[in-house]
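Hey, can you fold this?
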Amino acid sequence: MVLKIFNIINGLWCQNKITAKLGLGLKRWIVETGWSGETVLNNNLSMPRLGLGLWGPREGAETELAVSAALEAGYRLFDSASVYHNEKSLGLALMASGLKREDYFVVGKIWNDEQGWLGPQEAMKRSLDNLGLGYFDLTLIHWPTRQSGLTWRALAQARFLGLTRSIGVANFSPTQLLALVEETGLSPQVWQMEIHPLRVRADLPPLAAAWGIQLMAYSPLARGRLKKNQVIGRIAQKLDRSFSQVILRWAWQRGLGVIPKSVKPDRIKENAQIFDFSLSNEDMTAITRLDQARSVLKPPFVFDEAGYVLASAQ
């Protein structure tokens, strides 16, 4: 809401390059000082940093109820993908909310067998039809493949055509991301990665900041692997907070976007209540030291020697 009011005033004020730059600087200050739950992407569009992950909920009532609970709790970003098979339910819940299209942010993804030059736009149109929407706010390449260079160019064209407002990548290593940018000359707005206290990825935030890319953590709660962790338990008890709130606050203070997933309304609400407390430097360090460089994923495919998904395993 703070950024929405600012954007109206800024549009009236910024009539030349100097005042436009001042306006962008003020907009970033609003975000960085915590006056907003949003971040400003490198294309000057705003994105909520807290969202609901939609991997797992089944099509139908389960997804619709989860999205409705999230909207009621203040979530405005929804992380979807065609391979999640619940796009229609997400669209119905958003439509039932009565919110204007510009008041929520929908992320879509291009699956491995949708990559290439023609596949991405066809996939996006199918997904948008399922969702009942005219555009995505952000579209990501879901996993790196040897077709990702073509896919990236196709997403850039899709952005030009209005199918998506921003583009990004998921699960790309720094080497893969740099190769993609060098091949195409196109930088992403968002870089989505598996990040949680068991997989801290201390190398990524400084890289993302240097490259001007917003880093977003999926599976930020390590898929329940930290429910009995003693370090997090002590901090949670000290602050009178839940385990998940402490973990999400840790990610938030690292500057990450976070997309926890749940289908339980009380848990969805709880996960959004991370803005009225903070972790000390000591608490942040203690959680970071839990790092085991350990993934909690089991991708249903295999990779080649450079970490790209093999075409035969998509």
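Oh, and this one too while you're at it.
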Amino acid sequence: MKREFVTGDRVLGDLLSLAETVAPSRAVILISGEAGSGKRSLARWIHDRSQRSNQLFGILQGSETGTEDLRRAFEKVRGGTLYMSEVAALTLDAQDYMLSHLQTAVLDQQSPRIILSTKLNLPELVQGGKFKSALYERIATLNFKIPSLRERIGDVEILANAFLKRQSLKSGREVMSLNDETILLLNSHQWPGNVRELEAVIERSMIIAKGSEIQAREIQMHTVGMSAQQKKTLQAAALENWKPGRTLNDIERTVILEALDYHMGNRTHTAKSLGISIRTLRNKLAEYRVLGIKV
């Protein structure tokens, strides 16, 4: 049974379309993204759509992976797919071994298909002498960058409902729901732990919820991922702009548009002043244009 990758985000949807195209091949794939963003899930998704879907999907992980670790893993998953959760964990000798294996694997049809992932900046590691440039050039040909959850438009609500349904079915209980206030709260969070954090929050809320509809007070989240500037902006907006009937999305939109006006339309300066990425700002402005707001 093929696993599904739940998303409504256009950017991630385009990435999945490309991933599905290359899945049947033996090409090496590098998946990069923040911790908890779904790198392993994407690797399994690709494996399920490959010609090796009925073979073993092996996982290699660890803080330091040596040559012998690699050799054993290659032998264990012959004919299948080997997924390495952090390619930067390879020792320098193991990096040489990996490169040598990739160069000769094309002659061996039973050699495992390699999918690598990282949450680190590999070009910086190359510059610092901690990652071999030859290996990086070899594995970076197909680099799928998974956007963080905070960059994925609409996915917080989509994923939250998917987690609710899955956990409800697993526990044999009625499928729970989220009220509007809870959805607003979830959308206001920065999700430094990405999808993994959201799943944990939903599972915890289901345990403490008193009814079939999860209330905002039953959601427990942390703000450790928010910068001081983001917290200050949110607090200022709440104090200065809130009125009965206004939502967090309304307040956020007001703050962003005022900041954009202050910086005379300069998106780079606006994003920096708000403590958000330029991509996040572009996504927000795209949402506003759909609403008919000229930006």
